[in-house]
Design goal:
320 residues; alpha/beta; eight-stranded mixed beta sheet; 8 helices; 16 strands; 27% helix; globular; C-N_Hydrolase; Nit1/2_C-N_Hydrolase; omega-amidase activity; hydrolase; C-N_Hydrolase_sf
Length: 320
């Protein structure tokens, strides 16, 4: 099931911290999705025999619900807030993620789930620390509204509201990954987000749970990850749902409540030089990689683009 990282050297030998990207199938049954996510978290958190266990896990975008605008309101949950201390009782997805983070002592970037807040529905990522505490929450800023003739038409704004917080980060400490940024899927198309995460928060890594499709995936999935890694001079991590099998698609077309969505898969990790250091194909997988955050610092020192901006001619500013 697992996909090995590019490095052949065990992290037990190098002492480098590890991350795991979780890629699994999503169904119309939320209870099954919760069990699948929990099972994958447990498998990833236990790590490989003889190797250092991962300190951070990343789940896919919209893992507890079908990826369909009509499904989002039905599957949406009232999620806890960071400011209020993260009361998980209103959300079974949050409760599961928090409990798993605490049980296995890992950071969990919880992919994303539909969130209900009053009359609004958001596509939201929750981040839990090894104590099970909610330390960050990112509402997808850029909604996936596209129309590619002969390819795909999808409009998240039919049911979703765009998030208003741009610079979502959490601190893992100097011994792990330092400051980590969060975006969701379509957010990766906007270099301003990655540039501002570096400028304002000095991130060493950015996580983008995503669900690219069979039109945009082959063309842009890898390209955008490598571009954002070079832009931000940071590691970029993505986790996608596994692509539905032909049998699953046929069953959905025949008996499903919502239209099928075919994810590209290929969860990937890219280093600040723009090199792929871990990836998988379209099926279920756990991608394990080592992260040497000094590589981010080296890039920022050796190619100091942050210090070479022509602010007399242009600027990328955070408006708060």
């Amino acid at each position: 099931m697992s996909s090995l990282a590019a490095s052949e050297v065990s992290s037990t030998q190098t002492g480098l911290p590890r991350v795991s990207l979780l890629q699994f199938h999503v169904t119309e049954d939320k209870s099954i999705n919760l069990k699948t996510a929990r099972r994958n978290i447990e498998e990833a958190a236990r790590g490989r025999k003889g190797e250092r266990k991962p300190e951070l896990l990343v789940l896919p975008e919209v893992w507890n619900s079908p990826y369909a605008t009509e499904a989002f309101p039905e599957y949406a949950e009232v999620l806890p807030s960071v400011e209020e201390g993260g009361d998980m009782r209103g959300s079974e997805s949050a409760e599961m993620l928090s409990g798993a983070a605490k049980e296995f002592g890992v950071f969990i970037v919880g992919g994303s789930v539909p969130e209900r807040d009053g009359d609004d529905i958001y596509n939201t990522c929750m981040v839990f620390d090894p104590r099970g505490v909610l330390v960050a929450k990112h509402r997808k800023v850029h909604l996936f509204d596209i129309d590619v003739p002969g390819g795909i038409t999808f409009k998240e704004s039919d049911t979703l509201t765009a998030g208003g917080g741009l610079l979502t980060t959490f601190d893992t400490g100097e011994g792990l990954f330092g400051m980590v940024g969060v975006g969701i899927c379509y957010d990766i198309r906007f270099p301003e987000l990655a540039l501002l995460l570096t400028k304002e928060k000095d991130v060493s890594m950015i996580c983008f749970p995503g669900a690219f499709n069979m039109t945009t995936g082959p063309a842009h999935w890898e390209l955008l990850q490598r571009a954002r890694a070079v832009d931000s001079q940071a590691f970029v991590l993505t986790a996608s749902p596994a692509r539905a099998t032909e049998e699953m698609l046929e069953a959905t077309k025949k008996d499903g409540k919502f239209p099928p969505y075919t994810a590209w898969g290929h969860s990937t990790a890219v280093n600040p030089w723009g090199e792929i250091i871990g990836s998988c194909d379209e099926g279920e997988a756990i991608v394990e990689v080592e992260i040497d955050v000094s590589k981010s610092m080296q890039m920022k020192t050796n190619i100091p683009t942050a210090l070479q901006k022509r602010t007399d001619l242009y600027s990328v500013e955070f408006k708060g």
